[in-house]
């Protein structure tokens, strides 16, 4: 019972981050399942089954707050489903010994990307409102879907930064659209795992625990997406993913125990510095925005005085 409750809390926390950032539910949940000894294909299959429910709830919640561009959902979600089905098939055919280090590397790379992306870079909106071409969305969807299934997560870490970097969608709509389209990806990946692994390839009670936590968090995350600082959340999520997957890699490659402590210390140091930098950047940006608003207000007041 304790494990069920803990997994539900993990699902809740992961969905809060995912619903606020447009990424990290699958990566965070899969990382935890791997850490407690679940084999890679089973971990990804279990998480994707839970995601059918969480992504549906998240998509509906984001739609209610006007955070979804449904035209983009169709053009990126359908190719994403194709990529996810292919990725699930590939992972299902790999042995546990071969898949464990492969998934750990993928998750580590995604964690580093999330960490760097949200620690050091802002969001570009230079081309806000311009239509995103299908020739950009379709390949992106296929690649992100494939990475998502083989790595146990990756739809958000690949898709969200790409759409943000395009500058053609509001950040809140990028997050809502990625979360809504992930419903198609989760269904396709689950079908691929069911075909490749059968029903015994899924830990049903774990999927249920993750699902319950995610369902509770989905509407909260959709509301919080306008209020929580993405840089800080992204840096924290990326740090956690990196640290846990360093542990998986040390185990998978039989790294001498003498090297473990220095690597962990280095990883924790980087995490603390990254989160600190993110907090500082957020506060600086907020201060600049406040100063700009104050300057505009003062200019308007002086203009009124001159007219008077």
UniProtKB/TrEMBL annotation:
Q: Family per UniProt?
A: Belongs to the 4-toluene sulfonate uptake permease (TSUP) (TC 2.A.102) family.
The UniProt keyword set, sorted, is: Cell membrane, Membrane, Transmembrane, Transmembrane helix
Protein's recorded name: Probable membrane transporter protein
Q: Where in the cell is it found?
A: Cell membrane; Membrane
Name a single GO cellular component.
plasma membrane
Q: Where are the transmembrane segments?
A: 72-92, 98-123, 174-196, 202-225, 261-279
InterPro entries, per this entry?
TM_pro_TauE-like, TSUP/Inactive_protease-like
What kind of membrane protein is this, topologically? Multi-pass membrane protein
